[in-house]
Amino acid sequence: MKNNIFIAIVLVFFTLLSSCHKPDELLPSVSRDGINSITATFADGTGNFQGFIKPGSDEIVIPVPYYFPESSNNQVTETQLTKMRVSANLDDNVTVSPSLLYLDLTKENLITLTDQLKVKKQYKVKGVIRKSNECLLTDFKIPSLGMSGVVNETTKTISLIAIGNMTPALAEVTLSNHATISPDPSKQALDYNTEIKLTVTAHDGITKNIYTIKKQVPSKLSYGIRSGSAKLLFAKQLKADCGITADNLTGGIAVTDDYVILNTRNANSIYLNAKTGEKVGEIDLGALKGNLTNFYSTSDDDGNIFISNLAPNAGPFKIYKLTSVTSTPELMIEWNGTMAVGRKFSINGSIKTNAIITAPILAAGQKIARWTVVNGVLTSQIPEIITMSGLAKGWTTNADVVYTSGTNLTSDYFVAAYSDNTFAWVNGLTNTVRKSLDVISANYIMNAVDYMEFNNAKYVTTNWVNSFSWGAADGVWLMDVSNDNNFTGNLETKTCKSVVWECERDKYGAKGVTPVVVNANGTGDVTLRVSKDGYYLYLYFMFTNGYVVGYQFDCIDM
Question: Whole-prediction pTM value?
């Protein structure tokens, strides 16, 4: 027994002794690469050129495009490379000498990296003007046949959905910047009844892709948007790229199959190529042009364009229609309701067949003016006044309402509005709020909404706008609202599970351009459109004083 006690005491003693040992000295985590990335810009801060370590060498090469911007014909010169701003992202506790700031990238610049263990490694940094190796065909259409090809980048195929023989025709293609195509279908009418191979060659003259055009129907997913298919078509600054000089007055988007139309008060509307964002022309509004007379614009499912005035400031409420970008505005609706209306209105359906037109009545509680078109005929110049309930405050000047049907007057509708600053799903039978998302900060103005059905799914888009020079950025969201199970949570904190896509913040609003011109009226717009073949969903949005942006989604089973 005594021996057992003695052994126990000895064990405890050695345990205590070992616990008092000085801990082993731990070195910081060892750097593997030392330098993670290196970036160069021109002296004026434009450009963003990523360097790389040449395999098996001590050279860091920074490629600079042959043209800058890459979509332009402005050739980069060796002189521009003599003073480049260079920065590097290093591992923890790694230093570089001499310090990076401005380098002459026409020469080899010797830099030394010192890691945590004081081990040194030298690199030679230099730049090279390099022609682009991009050789993509991103859009294909045959205007004379009213046909667009479905481009599958994974298989490098272009599907033409057609039955019967097709007559040879010229096509329009969109390629990577400065790439060429052979044969060139824009110059040579091709026979698309048999498979045709098109070779797209990059500007470097070496890199190539071969696309095969086939008459076929590509497979669709059974439901909704293909995950990861979001594709930025364009992002154009209203002032620098589109030539809109007036601040705070651009407030509406209309969309056809070919064009995106921007309405700016007291100016002709301009229209852009719907795939590239390039300005194509202007719509002559004639006597309709005025600060309060062409106040807002939207479109229907068939691409008819509509422009409204602001009532009662400009007299009775009027909506004009245009059947194309070259047509003359025709008065469609005139309502002397003496109510404040016209800052926004929405159309679900088509005025050629059936449509529901809604315009929030401003500062009058939760009231909506509603017109209907049945079999191509407006049923009345005088709207029904719908009174809804369920919002804590309603709205004042910023609000938008869109129905989920062009025919069913008891279908649900969505409301985006300031004051409550929430996004609401309204029961169309009872006109009470069914569900709503969490209230966002009063610093943001929620004021636009659109709805579209695509590939057996239902989608809604909305925005919010920052009208200050500080604070969080403008935002746009696309949500799947096929059912309301996930229509909860907060857009700001990314807890709404209905969201399938959202735009990058701080990028496309008024704060994303230089110099910043504050979006004083807190305006912007969103719109959705489905391609005629049903394979693409397009989302277009605009922030006043900022950008107009186009995104493409698809449902192709790849």
Answer: 0.73
